[in-house]
Write a structure and sequence with these properties.
The chain is α+β, with helices and mostly antiparallel strands. The protein contains 4 helices and 10 strands. Helix 3 packs across helix 4. The protein starts with 16 loop residues before the first strand and ends with a helix.
Length: 217
């Protein structure tokens, strides 16, 4: 597998594109950096894909209902500006942030969501995991259990936030919430499906798939 690191993918993309591996990061700090990047970018700015994992945190979307926070305990809850309800992030979960100029790409939100879901399904299929998307609930599912979630924010034709894919993590905190506002929603991860993969490798591979799918329209 090609490893792109923080270099550009001009040959693969309609425009200059960068994939960056950030390692383990604080959620709030990364969120602030995403907002600054989006606010200060211009027509010449490269699109960026940030691969990271976060210290334990629950994030509640801008229309989130507090009733879906069941027993958060000592894990912080951060109200944020993406769509959707509450989800959990923690070490061992791949988070891929999509910092894209949608106007320049000629890409609508619904089409981007489809690209993200299809790309996650494609990644999982490479490891013999059969997954599906659902029309009634964004994300990706394996045997009705949610393995990946997504949420985006659009500002002046550019997007930030992105998606999360459960790799090999402590799943217990999901029982403290209704994941994505879905009561009794089962969740799963790649490790429970007998897949062993490094988080950075999964992020690099998924970003490459997404770039290819977006370029093909």
């Amino acid at each position: 597998m090609a490893r792109y690191g923080s270099g550009s993918l001009s040959a693969m993309s309609k425009i200059d594109t960068k994939i960056k591996y950030l390692g383990l990061t604080d959620y709030r700090e990364t969120w602030e950096k995403m907002k600054i990047f989006t606010q200060t970018r211009d027509a010449a700015s490269a699109d960026e894909w940030w691969i990271t994992e976060h210290a334990p945190v629950f994030t509640q979307g801008q229309n989130g209902n507090p009733e879906h926070l069941l027993d958060t305990g000592d894990i912080p809850v951060i109200q944020i500006d993406r769509g959707g309800q509450v989800t959990y992030h923690g070490p061992g979960q791949l988070v891929l942030y999509c910092l894209l100029d949608l106007n320049r790409l000629g890409l609508g939100v619904r089409r981007l969501v489809t690209h993200i879901e299809v790309s996650i399904i494609e990644l999982l299929s490479r490891y013999n995991v059969e997954a599906v998307a659902r029309k009634d609930a964004p994300g990706v599912y394996v045997n009705k259990a949610k393995i990946a979630a997504l949420g985006l924010r659009i500002r002046k034709g550019s997007c930030y936030h992105g998606m999360s894919l459960n790799i090999d993590m402590d799943m217990d905190p999901f029982a403290r919430i209704n994941p994505c506002g879905m009561k009794e929603q089962a969740v799963t991860q790649m490790a429970d499906l007998n897949v062993t993969i490094e988080l950075e490798q999964a992020g690099q591979e998924l970003a490459g798939i997404l770039i290819g799918n977006i370029n093909r329209g």
